[in-house]
């Protein structure tokens, strides 16, 4: 549950300008509440507490845009195809800015890797980062997206195009293959999502 220390009046204006629905607080301590997708921001005197399954969406609206981030992504399936999940982590010089994981149904390992990359890139874009260094332990996804390898599978080709579109939205980007141990947090998120299923 993220807590953002801020000027809550300025935060309210930012959210209202973004079209977020704002309502009165439910207790004498709450100044107001803002609901956006699967999350609710609750304003107190000098902070916001964000609850819900997808708090990073509200955080992204409130964060100063710009800056550089590192994105780590991983996807996996138990069976190929089989039950699959994705995980991603966005890191800045201040630490972990956002992370997420979810089960995505039945998919191949490669499909899950691409879906993790796309989900992480969408969030980094929503946060307004100018540049991103992306790292994943899927050599196939990295080599296909960077153009080093051809993409023959139609499903993966669609995902490659989407990933490239998202990458091109940044002023500067890189995409590199890293060993699994460098991608440990994203890998852990995938396995936790699969275990919770």
Automatic annotation (TrEMBL):
Residues 65-195 form the RNase H type-1 domain. Transmembrane segments: none annotated. Pfam families: RVT_3. InterPro entries: RNaseH-like_sf, RNaseH_domain, RNaseH_sf, RnhA-like_halobact. Gene3D superfamilies: Ribonuclease H-like superfamily/Ribonuclease H (3.30.420.10). NCBIfam families: RnaseHI_Halo. This is Ribonuclease HI. It comes from Haladaptatus pallidirubidus. The lineage of its organism: Archaea, Methanobacteriati, Methanobacteriota, Stenosarchaea group, Halobacteria.
